[in-house]
Amino acid sequence: MVDAKFSQIEVSRLDVPVPAAPSSALAVVDFQFYLSSGQLGASSNPSNQSLIRSVELEQLALTAESGITDLSFIATLHAVAFVPLSKSTLQETSRQVEIADYKRGHDSGVGSTFDVPLPEPVDLLPLLRPSGTESSTIVVSMSLGGQLPTVSWTTNIGMALSVDVGE
Amino acid sequence: MTAMVSVGKRTGSLGLGLVLVLSGAARAQSVQGNGASTPAPTVTYTPMRATTPTQAAGAAPAPAATAAPYSAPYPPGARYPPGSSAPAATAAPYSAPYSAPYSAPYPNATSSPAASLLGPSLPPPAAATDGLASPTVAKRALPPTARARGLVGVAMDVGMPDGLNVGPVVVPASWVRVGASVGSNSAGFDYRGSLSLLPVGFGPSFDFDVGHCTVADMNSLLGTFFKVSGWVKPYVQQLGYTYFNAHLGIEYPVGRVMLFLHGGYTYLAGTVRGPSPVVVSRNSDAAQTPNTTVTAQVGDVRAYTLSAKLGAVLMFGGR
Predict the structure, then answer these.
(1) ipTM > 0.90 (yes/no)
(2) Which of B306, B89, B280, B169 is nearest to A33 (CA)?
(3) pLDDT band at B42 (very low <50, low <70, confident <90, very high)
(4) Residue B272 region by backbone torsions, left for phi larger than 0, else alpha for psi between -120 and 50, else beta
(5) Greater confidence, B12 or B85?
(6) Residue B299: which of A6, A10, A41 has the nearest Cβ?
(7) In this complex, do B294 and A40 lie within 8 Å of one another by their Cβ atoms?
(8) Does the global pTM surpass 0.95?
């Protein structure tokens, strides 16, 4: 029997492009990025699935990479992660998890890095147990609201996970 | 005229007989045919000994018995019927250093029906009463226990998860051995303390170890002894652990050396580190720049696993 617990695994998704807002007024922009979950332990094999006992999202952060330097404009953020039906279409399936639902309550300086408040760790284990017909990919879909930049920009997405594996 | 009359049995050792001898003198005492009284003839009764040797009570042992070589602490051969199976007793293995009278494992001949027919029992020879005092028997029977071979020694063993270890051992008593050792599991430095309990000084043993392997790159080593999924390997870049062994073993003495094989269970607790980012996916551009990386910081690992080690202890000094 082997049991390994990692309290902090940092997953970094770099240079995620965010489209420009149509106007400087309040707006909402959607963007997606995907993660290859095969290297995170995702498998459709039940015996391999049982090796991963727990995967929880402890922290989610956005860091301005290019185009902007301050993320204080973000008033709302909603993020959902799901397993697509296939990697080519990224079609959403019922295997999805809401990972963040943020609404800014008061004005505060954010700076170049925005740590999205998570009321509690988010269980991501269903995303690592795709069926045989599903892809070993995790798609994260985000919606940003506020007075968004009218130019496109890029951000680095950082996620801190706690993982418990064993057999 | 001489007449002989034999009375009694001539079987075995109890055959007796009477011989009536009518000698010339006896004739002189016979009644004459004319009725005249003549002197009475002399009659002599002579006990006739049996033709087979008979052991009288308190007599010395039969020559055959005393002349027989003493090969085992048995009563003299005279206590066994002719053709009895004394060799069977000599074939009985001597398996433990008994201090009890040596006759204990064998049936009491004097109480057997056959023995009662053979007459009074004879006292066993002196060598039989003190049994193992015979140097030949004692040297062959006593196992060369660790204590008999010395107080200190050096041990070397190889196993998992211990790796290869070498260090001194102390044997304060034949049933206990303690040791400390250093070594390597081929990836990191290892140090360990050991306690072995040998109830009879050799043979079965109970062994306990506590050791620690410093943090090192053990990915290949881990994959050798554990079933590790492919996706996990990149994250286990460094591993260090403390382990506890609880083993059952068998120890076999060969002169000053005690060979041993221990096996059992190990509880292992350690630290896993993956300080270098692992590239999970790359962009599809020409540069193939990484777009997703995973960095596994410090993690904790625990394992229960089968373990074993094979080694030898060389003792110094001793008898």
Answers:
(1) no
(2) B280
(3) low
(4) beta
(5) B85
(6) A6
(7) yes
(8) no
